[in-house]
Amino acid sequence: MAARHRHKDRPKDRHGGEPSRRLRPAGFDELGLRRAVSDRMLPFLVGAMAFLAALALGGWVAAAGLARHWQLGAAAAMTVQVPRPSEPAAQGGGTRVERVVTLLNSTPGIAEAQALTEDQLGDLLRPWLGAGVERLAIPLPAVIQVHLTEDGPDMTALDRRLAAAAPGTLTEAHGVWIARLSALARSLQACAGVALLVVAAVAVAVVAVATRSGLAARRDAIEIVHGLGATDGFIAARFAARATMLATLGAAAGALAALPVLLGLAQLSAPFGIPADAAAGADDAAANLLAALPPGLWVALPLLPLSAGAIGFLAAQATVRRWLRRLP
Length: 328
Description:
Elements: H1 2-6, H2 19-23, H3 33-36, H4 41-75, E1 77-82, H5 96-105, E2 110-115, H6 118-129, E3 142-148, H7 155-165, E4 170-173, H8 175-217, H9 219-227, H10 232-273, H11 276-280, H12 285-292, H13 295-325
Antiparallel strand pairs: 1-3, 1-4, 2-3
Helix pairs in contact: 4-8, 4-10, 4-13, 5-7, 8-13, 10-13
């Protein structure tokens, strides 16, 4: 045990310097880590993990962005159904649908109210009722699209006025759909978060296994260097530097490989998340493609190699120090 503690402090020469650093040429690999820790398998596995992590990050950011876009659109809209639209209104002049449209447009908190035409209503019902929707024998209610302002109307007072002008009129706010979209977005983000945790755990395991393999392959050299006075921290730092470099390079390659996939998916989802006028205003196809990727993802992707390097450093340090503590 005494000899064990003496090995913790590296002996110094008469000039006060550390012999291993003064005599070791730059880049000298005294532990043979270039052969012990493979520079092919570890970067490949970490790169695969980084590729999956990039896709999970893309799913996280896309789910949040699309849910935000859809929620804003649903919260700013409302649908009003007027049964028997061609009959006279109970209050005021004109038909029931005309009176409701006039009342809606004069209500504070409503930006615009417009009744759908018969063709628009047919197009809306055709996916459910088929091509013969125009030949339906039952009378269809008039459907009014309502766009709300940021504050929105007083729904209690609006329902009361609509019931007085055209009894039976139904208003449908999109609160239920907003809640469902929010729940869906949270579920997708939770799945992406779990995927990221699983990828990080697998990356830690990969680095630990590669480090243990290197320790086993260079056991004799490590024991000799350790017996000559190399500290546990010195040996762990050498392994950690090797693992950090390989993990960082592998993660950078994986992130770059995922970038074309993310750009393609972003281009496909752009019509659902980017306003049409903004998309049409982009003349440069390359700039439009790059703009389709959310800004948060451009920030997150460069962090993957840094995170992989940190995982490689910590996993290698912990593995080597645990292994050295078990030496006789």
